[in-house]
């Protein structure tokens, strides 16, 4: 049975992952991972995160995949005994210098995609170092992945959904070159997601960044556009989505399939995990048939449009910002939940009516979608309510005080 690996940037996303069928969840420790601008977890709440995963029969992996300087390694060494004691199932690392430290603390080690593992010989070397799994390079096609997985002496893992980077396996220097914020230390400002203009010019301008295309013996200059009609996201890839290719994926022999998205909201984690869980289970149960609803559901959470990356030997397409036809509007929060009668009290700061689609998110609740079918104020049934009121709604799923309430609206 293959492993479905989901991301989590906070407790809401973690609960969303385990509640929707993730076999394992990967999280980042504050200051030591490639998503330092996400909420992240701390050494003080790491045990709570491990317990949530293990109580739901899921594994928990800890990302420590930034470039490590001596001061970083010395600081992290102090945390390793606690990480082991709390029951973390594996460390995901990109710095080889971290391997012996982890193994000496009896921790399992996985090599990050940042290492750009692209061949069998590298996997043999990693095994000698005591590493149990490698995340394969994003730039491999499906036939290359199949050959590597078949002969690999250790477990293999690949990405199947989420954001893609314009640099090889995410090892980008654009953010550092422009803003002094290193992507390789988890602090990427994503200039690739901005709109830029591409000009061809033989006169080098010291105030303009240059891309040199040697094959055509010409310089390409990147500068901020003064004319919106010429702007484009030519450095911004679409999101990967392999949901239409589940049989091909599961025939590769890869051990674990990974969803990207530790910086994304818990509704994204809930939906992507649920969709791929259903698809994997249907294939492994022998009754697989592609369900168009899977793609619809993925399209309704944050995405930049979909592509299949390098799986089928073609470069990915470019995209702009969120392509989902649905947006979330913050309309209120949960005041209380009465479990015996399955009713939630909401404090709302926007109008609400029967039939509205809600998204309720909380650190323990995770992410729940709910269609408003019944509302009351002071025991009187109503069809709609104006902002500024408290209202009771019937809802079977347990929600909690201070959970955020969003209205889902078509763009």
From TrEMBL:
<dbReference type="Pfam" id="PF01136">
    <property type="entry name" value="Peptidase_U32"/>
</dbReference>
<dbReference type="InterPro" id="IPR051454">
    <property type="entry name" value="RNA/ubiquinone_mod_enzymes"/>
</dbReference>
<comment type="similarity">
    <text>Belongs to the peptidase U32 family.</text>
</comment>
<dbReference type="GO" id="GO:0008233">
    <property type="term" value="F:peptidase activity"/>
</dbReference>
<dbReference type="GO" id="GO:0006508">
    <property type="term" value="P:proteolysis"/>
</dbReference>
<dbReference type="InterPro" id="IPR001539">
    <property type="entry name" value="Peptidase_U32"/>
</dbReference>
<keyword id="KW-0378">Hydrolase</keyword>
<dbReference type="InterPro" id="IPR009000">
    <property type="entry name" value="Transl_B-barrel_sf"/>
</dbReference>
<keyword id="KW-0645">Protease</keyword>
<protein>
    <submittedName>
        <fullName>Putative protease YdcP</fullName>
        <ecNumber>3.4.-.-</ecNumber>
    </submittedName>
</protein>
């Amino acid at each position: 049975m293959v492993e479905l690996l989901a991301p989590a940037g906070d407790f809401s996303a973690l609960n969303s992952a385990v509640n929707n069928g993730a076999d394992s969840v990967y999280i980042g420790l504050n200051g030591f991972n490639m998503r330092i601008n996400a909420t992240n977890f701390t050494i003080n709440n790491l045990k709570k995160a491990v317990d949530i995963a293990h109580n739901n029969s899921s594994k928990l992996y800890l990302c420590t995949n930034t470039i490590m300087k001596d001061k970083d390694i010395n600081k992290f060494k102090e945390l390793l005994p606690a990480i082991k004691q709390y029951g973390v199932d594996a460390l995901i690392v990109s710095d080889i210098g971290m391997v012996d430290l982890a193994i000496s603390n009896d921790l399992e080690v996985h090599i990050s995609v940042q290492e750009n593992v692209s061949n069998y010989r590298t996997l043999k070397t990693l095994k000698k170092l005591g590493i149990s799994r490698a995340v394969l390079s994003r730039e491999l096609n499906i036939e290359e992945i199949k050959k590597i997985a078949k002969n690999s002496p250790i477990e293999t893992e690949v990405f199947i959904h989420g954001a893609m980077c314009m640099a090889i396996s995410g090892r980008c220097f654009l953010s550092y070159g422009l803003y002094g914020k290193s992507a390789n230390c988890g602090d990427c400002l994503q200039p690739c997601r901005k709109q830029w203009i591409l000009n061809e010019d033989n006169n080098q301008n010291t105030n303009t960044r240059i891309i040199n295309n040697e094959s055509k013996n010409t310089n390409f200059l990147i500068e901020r556009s003064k004319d919106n009609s010429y702007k484009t996201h030519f450095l911004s890839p679409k999101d990967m989505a392999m949901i239409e290719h589940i049989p091909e994926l599961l025939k590769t022999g890869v051990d674990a399939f990974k969803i990207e998205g530790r910086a994304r909201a818990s509704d994204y984690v809930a939906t992507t995990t649920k969709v791929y869980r259903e698809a994997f289970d249907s294939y492994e149960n022998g009754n697989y048939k592609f369900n168009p609803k899977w793609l619809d559901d993925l399209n309704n959470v944050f995405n930049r449009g979909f592509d299949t990356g390098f799986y089928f030997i073609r470069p990915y397409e470019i995209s702009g910002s969120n392509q989902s036809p649905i947006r979330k509007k913050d309309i209120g929060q949960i005041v209380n939940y009465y479990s015996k009668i399955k009713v939630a009290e909401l404090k709302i700061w926007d109008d609400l009516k029967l039939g509205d689609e809600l998204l309720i998110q909380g650190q323990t609740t995770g992410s729940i979608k709910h269609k408003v079918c019944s509302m009351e104020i002071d025991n009187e049934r109503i069809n709609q309510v104006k902002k500024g009121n408290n209202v009771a709604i019937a809802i079977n799923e347990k929600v909690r005080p201070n959970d955020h309430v969003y209205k889902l609206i078509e763009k």
